[in-house]
Amino acid sequence: MPADFNMTAVLTLMYAVFLSQIYLISVHYPRKMCARIREVIEAYPPADYPKLYPGPYAWYAESAKSRGLSLFMAINYAIAALGLVILGVMLGTGYEPALLGGDEVFVMLYFMLQMCPLFYIQIAEFRHYALMRQQFAETRRSASLAPRRMSQFVPPKLVALAALLFALWLVFYLSGKGDIATWGSEVYATLVMITGMNIFYVLYMRRMVFGKKIDPYRADEDRDRQIRVMGKIYVLSSIGVSLFLALTQAADQYGFEIFDPVLVSFYLQLCIIGGLGFVFRDISVNSLNFEVYRKQTASQP
Fold first, then answer.
1. How far is Cα 131 from Cα 217, in angstroms, rounded to an integer?
2. Where are the alpha helices (DSSP H) in the chain?
3. CA–CA separation, 43 vs 46, rounded Å?
4. Residue span of the structural domain in which 103 resides
5. Which chain regions cross the lipid bilayer (predicted)?
6. pLDDT digits over 25-65, tens only?
7. Chain centroid, CA 288 distance in Å
8. pLDDT at 2
């Protein structure tokens, strides 16, 4: 790191990126998520679409708009306020990022705190689908007999690019770690974590393509579209991880570790945009077939 590097420019960039992280993860996407849930509940109420609300979720749907979602947003706003307090303390104490890096751990810890409300929503969604499968009691079930292939849902060229970038990152990463006899636990942990992540993506995609429906009522076209979106997210995530790790290692090797907090925050925001952003954009409420959840009447088969 050049000794005469403008620290004011570094701090300005870091504050701007961290402010973006606070707004994007604790304000913008939680608001979009609440708006999506309200849209579903209002347009497809439990009285007319009981299959969408198994077990206690009919009651939850009625109370979510007033109490549940308000509490969810209050928690997110509190986390955002904490982030602003952290920035205020940094400004007031004359904080400067370490030249040799390491401050990115605080960005990661705050990100994990930001993700807690979203993880709760994800866990509730898994429980929701589990109750759906448990209460699914149709006697006439149909399944598509057309053969399914992974290449239908994930472009092979994109997968090949992800595999190539993973291989290039692996070579670049190991080239800077010396002889295998000198590798520490950090090297092995990184290899296991990144390789395991890619293996998980492949196995989970196979489960989505060839396994049973997570939502037993969902229309086949909606399920296939969801798989395509998730496949795109997983492949782009793999590509992003390889590029991010290569960039952070280059920063370590060439003396720009001071930018590690900025790089980590920027990468985490890209992950959210590439995850929730793609879902909100490509799977809108109006594009889904909710008739499969409607209450059956005597005239219906």
1. 12
2. 7-23, 29-43, 57-63, 69-93, 104-135, 156-175, 185-210, 220-253, 260-272, 278-282
3. 10
4. 7-137+147-293
5. 6-29, 69-93, 105-123, 158-175, 187-204, 233-251, 263-280
6. 999 999 999 999 888 888 888 888 888 888 777 666 766 66
7. 21
8. 46
Cβ atoms of 101 and 252 closer than 8 Å:
yes
Can you tell me which residue has the tokens 């109370």?
Answer: 63
Residue 211 domain-assigned (yes or no): yes
Classify residue 1: in a domain, yes or no. no
Residue type, 187: V
Asked whether residue 2 is assigned to any structural domain, the reply reads: no
Alpha carbons 226 and 203: distance in angstroms, whole number:
16
Indicate the number of domains in the chain: 1
In a domain, residue 65? The reply is: yes
Q: Which two tokens stand for residue 9?
A: 């420019």
Which residue pairs from 49-53 have beta carbons closer than 8 angstroms and sit at least 24 positions apart in sequence?
A: 49/290, 49/293, 49/294, 49/295, 50/293, 50/295, 51/132, 51/217, 51/292, 51/293, 51/294, 51/295, 52/217, 52/290, 52/293
